[in-house]
Write a structure and sequence with these properties.
The protein contains 1 helix and 6 strands; from the N terminus they run αββββββ. By secondary structure, it is mostly beta strands. The protein has one domain: SH3 type barrels. Strands 2-1-6 form a 3-stranded antiparallel β-sheet, covered by helices on one side. It has a 3-stranded antiparallel β-sheet with strand order 3-4-5, covered by helices on one side. The longest helix is centred in the N-terminal third of the chain and has 10 residues. The mean pLDDT is about 90.
Length: about 80
């Protein structure tokens, strides 16, 4: 089910930013559909880096470890 839910959020029209929570308590926000590549067993998420370079780090999350996927409310 997490794969289908992630796909539904990523492909929503219009796109709504969402937050992923994992079994170890990590949270990742996906603010644009291009910031996440989704495969059957892994989601690769672009996480903005803070600091001088302001680049993006890639984080791999096993889909089986996704606990919740929720829309991000404005200001939250």
């Amino acid at each position: 089910m997490p794969y289908d839910e992630l796909r539904r959020f990523r492909e929503a029209q219009p796109f709504v930013p969402f937050r992923i929570r994992t079994t170890d308590g990590q949270q990742f926000e996906v603010r644009h559909p291009e910031m996440m590549a989704l495969f059957r067993h892994v989601a690769v998420i672009g996480v903005p880096e803070e600091g001088a370079n302001e680049g993006v780090s890639l984080v791999s999350v096993a889909v089986i470890h996704v606990v919740t996927v929720q829309p991000v409310r404005p200001g939250g």
